[in-house]
Amino acid sequence: MTARAWFPALLVMALVVALAFLTLPVAAIFLNAPPSRLVESLGDESARDALLLSLRTVAISMAIIVGVGTPAAYLLATRRFPGRTLAITLVELPLVLPPAVAGIALLAALGPSGILGGAIEDAGIRLALETAGVVVALTFVASPFYVRQAQAAFETLDRTWLDASRTLGASEARTFLRVAVPAAVPGLAAGGALALGRALGEFGATLIFAGSFRGVTQTVPLAIYDRFSTDFDGALALSGLLVILSAAILLSVKALGGAAR
Amino acid sequence: MLRVEARAELGGLILEVELEAAAGECLALAGPSGAGKTTVLRIAAGLLRPARGRVACGGRVWLDTERGVSVPPEERRCGYVFQEYALFPHLSVWRNVAYPLRGSERRERARELLERFGIARLADARPGSLSGGERQRVAVARALARRPDALLLDEPLSALDSRTRAAAARELGSVIREAEVPALLVTHDFGEAAQLGDRVGVIDRGRVVQLGLAGELAASPASAFVADFAGAVVLTGVARPGPDGLTLVDLDGGGQVTSVDGGRGEVAVSVYPWEIALEPPDAAHPGSAQNHLPAEVASLTEVGNRVRLGLAAGQPLVAEVTPAAVRALDLAPGQRVIASWKAAATRVVAR
Amino acid sequence: MAGIALVTGCGGADPSRPRLLVSAASSLTEALTACSDSFGAADVRLSFAGSDELAAQIRQGAKPDVFASANTRLPKALRKEGRLSRPVEFATNELVLAVPAGEGKVRSVGDLSRQGVTLAVGSPSVPIGSYTREVLSGLPGGQGAAILSHVRSNEPEVKGIVGKLTQRAVDAGFVYRSDVEAARDELDGIELPARLRPTVVYGAGVVKGARQPGVARGYVAGLRHGVCARRLLDSGFGRPPSS
After folding, report:
1. Which of A148, A172, C165, C238 is the residue whose CA sits 20 to 30 A from B150?
2. Residue C145 falls within a domain, yes or no?
3. Which fold has domain A38-259?
4. CB-CB under 8 Å, C60 with A212
5. How far is CA C215 from CA A188, C14, C206, in A?
């Protein structure tokens, strides 16, 4: 090998090693047990419960995240106001919190003995050990992923588009809906994919804040954990399902972002 | 009538202007980058609120800081053409143009405008696939779509390559005239301002240092800055074909020049002051310069290491020579001279 | 808030059957999962974890309807704190030394102090862990400490120990007899010498502030006398002391 060719070869080797390391465990999920056994364990009622619960809670969380996060990200991206940097840091905080810490934090704030616990209970809302608590946990850990991406997407918008829209008779709200959001869709979709993946796989905060009640708060990741000591094949089956689900969602969101271009 | 008075402080620059453009008049504001030109437009459009100011258009008050009146941009009827056109990338051309319109006739009206600008065939294209000149036309069409009360143009020609620029300038000039509303145009190019503006103002570091006809500014600059900024001499006249494929232009106010450029009918000719040589009135005209105009020295301004002379002929002229030349010819106000320059240095531009 | 209301509204619950939340010790997993479907008075939702973790949740204010623990100490403590009704003893269990099936490395408690043996036990606060330490402290000389030094994992619940054993990550572990039964042929259970065997009694109670206290009491009673009681016996648990 010539003196110059070793560097590209090194790059290729690094990629090969990285790919092998990353794909092997995922492939092992499907290769470790016979497919019939995997499909069989999916027929289990608790598996179906977990799957439906995951889908429901993730869907609601994403709706909240996108509904509240998009305007919030727009404000952060397009206006300078006192405390803006602080606001950005606070929004990003859950990103660096380990999930278990997030769970403890949610308990401390919204749990039955938490700061707002009393007020929440008086309002007749129960979060701990309830499905609503799962939604709260998922929203808490996944929203920074979306808001950050959305903010970045809005920041790369050409401001003159927004100005032009105003001079053409569109109010700020109209400008947001008809120019900013459509033009930012690829970035918003990317943020949505990240948040969705995070929410689907969320474990630690959910376990601590909402507990692991089958059919009520035991999402697929929690079900996998529950099973792995006693029914490894069952855990594999659910894991495989989650991998396929996540991949499907990721691909469709990417396609959506690409089509909007 | 559009009137803009404003005082604002922006990052170290203090902007203080008072401008007025009558209906159908185009006021061109020319100045170097950072002088505050775009800021003036943004204040007029309502995109920026000055510390103190008043903006009124056609009897409606859009801004009055003293009385706390501030109409948001969407309620001011301005047609704003942005420097890079700001076309919405996710909408087709006709949807861009129809964006400010409401109701069932918007598609029709958009098509009408596209036809007027000769780009009807691009109706369904996306802005990303258009050339610079095409995008400029879409931007102008869009700004005019809802028949605005005033036109604001930010460097409307600077994003175009020089080939497209001449034709675009002609078009833009007639569009502005047709619209019959006050127009405020900003540019860093004095020639563009002279070409498109009925009146030209030179803005430097937030202040309008001189305002008047283009020729006046060129011939009688209020300061060395204006003199330097107003680079070219612009003369108006009528063109007709001449011998050797050259064009003869009979200048308004007397005199005739030759140009290598083509042109017919009412035109303007431009020449750079440093291409004008001065000779004593009784000189024999040696050399290849074909254009000679008798003139009288009106003013002398030192600009750096050269001297700018305002000359009075049928129309004002400006020549730039070295101090040595000034001494050799003993130039002073009132002195008669002959201004000479080459036909090749004479550009014919649209009026 | 709207989203949360939506979710609390539809929990998939049958309105005619109330929902009962049961927090139970990890070792009760197989038995209670199997028998709770036959509890006609309510739609039973189960959560299994180390008893100490479940107790901590209740102390935090969480309000499942029933708490079933692998000891009586935790329910009594919660009762003292006013968080639980008077606990009922509903089953017993036997602590055994388990090894992966067919492994000959460890055959007795004494083998645990041999060089190179790895062990999984429960963490000190979980019942299985405290029972184990009771056993080890009853051993002569420094044997107990020597064995503890071979511990490779302190699991938060007994099923975690089972997992480590079935994956052959450790050579041996202390679990309950019922766990060996539940693992079918994957584990071999080794009886402890009679003098070392701890008393393992399970206690259950109704959580104060539970949504369905009446139904909860019925469930707890069923652990002693109903379908679940029979199921527990079938799964390797023993009868409660007072019956």
Report:
1. A172
2. yes
3. MetI-like fold (1.10.3720)
4. no
5. 48, 15, 10
Distances in Å between the Cα of B141 and the Cα atoms of B87, B151, C66 are 11, 12, 73
Residue ending a domain, among B175, B210, B229, is: B229
The yes-or-no verdict on residue B243 having pLDDT over 90 is: no
Largest CA distance in chain B: 73
Instruction: Kindly report the CATH number assigned to the domain that includes residue B263.
Output: 2.40.50.100
Tell whether C141 is covered by a domain: yes
Q: Are B91 and B182 within one domain?
A: yes
For B123-154, what is each residue's pLDDT tens digit?
Answer: 999 999 999 889 999 999 999 999 999 999 99
Do C71 and C130 form a contact (C-beta atoms < 8 A)?
Answer: yes
Q: For tokens 């996306």, what's the residue?
A: B126
Residues B75 and B180 in one domain: yes
Burial class of A170 by CB neighbour count within 10 A (0 to 12, 13 to 18, 19+)? buried
Identify the weakest region by mean pLDDT among A139-148, B233-242, C146-155. Answer: B233-242
Q: What is the pLDDT of residues A95-128, one digit of tens each?
A: 889 998 999 899 889 988 888 888 888 888 888 7
Measured distance CA(A208)–CA(A127) in Å, rounded: 12
* Calculated CA dihedral for residues A170, A173, A179, A182, nearest 10 degrees: -150
Are B57 and B74 part of one and the same domain?
yes
pLDDT, residue B222, reads 74
Q: Is the pTM of this model over 0.80?
A: no
Residues of C with Cβ-Cβ distance to A52 under 8 angstroms: 12
Q: Are residues C68 and C188 located together in one domain of the fold?
A: no
> What is the number of CB-based contacts under 8 A between chain A and chain B?
64
All residues of chain B having their beta carbon less than 8 Å from the beta carbon of residue A185 are 90
The answer, yes or no, to whether residue C5 has pLDDT greater than 70, is: no
Are B202 and B256 in the same domain? Answer: no
**Which amino acid belongs to residue C90?**
F
Is B199 an interface residue toward A (CB < 8 Å)?
no
The answer on B137 and B9 residing in a single domain is: yes
Residue A50 near residue A219 (C-beta atoms within 8 A): yes
DSSP 8-class letter at C192: P
Domain limits of chain A? 1-31, 38-259
Inspect the interface and report whether the beta carbons of B78 and A167 lie closer than 8 Å.
yes
Q: How many domains does chain C have?
A: 2
Provide the residue range defining the domain that includes C69: 20-92+199-234
Provide the H-helix boundaries in A79-155. Answer: 84-96, 99-110, 117-122, 131-155
Domain of B339, in residue numbers: 233-350
C-beta neighbour count of B66 within 10 angstroms:
8
